[in-house]
Amino acid sequence: MGGALSIASSVLVPEVDAVVAFYGVPSSELADPAKAKAPVQAHFGERDNFVGFSDVTALEEKLKASGVPYEVHIYPGIGHAFMNRSPEGVKRRKSMGMEDEDEAAVQLAWSRFTSWMTRYLSP
């Protein structure tokens, strides 16, 4: 939900200067990413298969059409919510049969996040 809402904010909230979304694409009823007005960076696990919520190909096409700077990163062998390191997140992923530990993917995503926000939010 958070990633979808982040992308929606790039469409719906004029005060947003940049967005980083971790897994999630907004429904077309909420916001069309083709109308994004702020730069968008998005992160998805390759094994994230929530129908209608993880369509990375459609998201990339729409972001390209928007004309805003964007990056979409896909992490091989990773499932949904890989950045959620809370005990509840770990338990939920394990109950869904998802591999939990990929510290390299987490660190790579954080470095990309930091670089993106530094580029678009630094004075």
Automatic annotation (TrEMBL):
Pfam family, one: DLH
Taxon lineage: Eukaryota, Viridiplantae, Streptophyta, Embryophyta, Tracheophyta
Gene Ontology MF: a single term: hydrolase activity
Domain of life the protein comes from: Eukaryota
Xref: SUPFAM superfamilies: alpha/beta-Hydrolases (SSF53474)
InterPro entries: AB_hydrolase_fold (IPR029058), Dienelactn_hydro (IPR002925), Dienelactone_hydrolase-like (IPR051049)
Domain Dienelactone hydrolase intervals: 1-121
Name of this chain's protein: Dienelactone hydrolase domain-containing protein
Parts forming coiled coils: none
